[in-house]
UniProtKB/TrEMBL annotation:
This is DUF5667 domain-containing protein. The chain crosses the membrane at residues 43-64. The keyword Membrane applies. It comes from the Bacteria. Keywords: Membrane, Transmembrane, Transmembrane helix.
Length: 201
């Protein structure tokens, strides 16, 4: 997920990401997980105007080589940061989280699909939890507060692509994007049974 860029490329990439974020906010707001607990969150993004900018936004990193599908690393204040650029190698992401001491269930589904609602029970969060979840034009980003992912809990990640939505009244084409769900389960997690993604309907 991280690629060495010179200062010019870094500034250009930051500017492009800012433009994507502004266009996404103007079109369809992307929820962010900032609430009191790490309960289940589902969001769909990379739609409408934002989709038109994605190719430009990824052009700079492409100049210095392809990026991995995901990255897992230490974050500030006792957190673990997870970034997912492409929906590839779910087993590898599970292993990377396990190496950080976190049990995980990662499912990458087909287009316009999600897992059923009743797979697991949501775990309560630690006081002042720093767990967050975002889906945006750059992929999925999860920040896990280590206090929320103690033994007996499982991080549950399910993601899929969304179908293109045609052209809006301004002539901007919706190229489709990503849908994601992140939760922290207490106890067992049932197998995913894919079903139509109601957020993309």
């Amino acid at each position: 997920m991280t690629t060495d860029l010179d200062s010019f490329e870094g500034r250009l990439l930051a500017d492009l990401r800012a433009e994507v974020a502004e266009r996404a906010a103007a079109g369809a707001a992307v929820p962010r997980r900032d609430g009191p607990g790490p309960g289940r969150r589902r969001v769909a993004a990379v739609l409408a105007a934002a989709a038109a900018v994605v190719a430009t936004a990824v052009a700079v990193p492409a100049l210095v080589g392809p990026s991995p599908a995901y990255a897992v690393g230490e974050g500030p204040g006792g957190t673990i940061e997870v970034e997912i650029d492409r929906l590839e190698d779910a087993a590898g992401l599970e292993q990377a989280l396990e190496e950080e001491g976190v049990a995980a269930d990662v499912q990458y589904l087909g287009t316009d699909l999600q897992c059923q609602d009743d797979r697991y029970r949501d775990a309560p969060s630690a006081p002042g939890s720093r767990t967050t979840f975002e889906v945006g034009t750059g992929g999925l980003r999860v920040v896990l507060d280590r206090r929320d992912v103690v033994e007996g809990r499982t991080v549950v990640i399910a993601a899929s692509t969304t179908s293109p939505g045609g052209v809006d009244e301004n002539g901007i084409e919706d190229l489709g994007g990503a849908y994601g769900e992140v939760g922290i389960a207490r106890g067992p997690v049932a197998p995913c049974e894919p079903e139509p993604n109601d957020s993309s309907l």
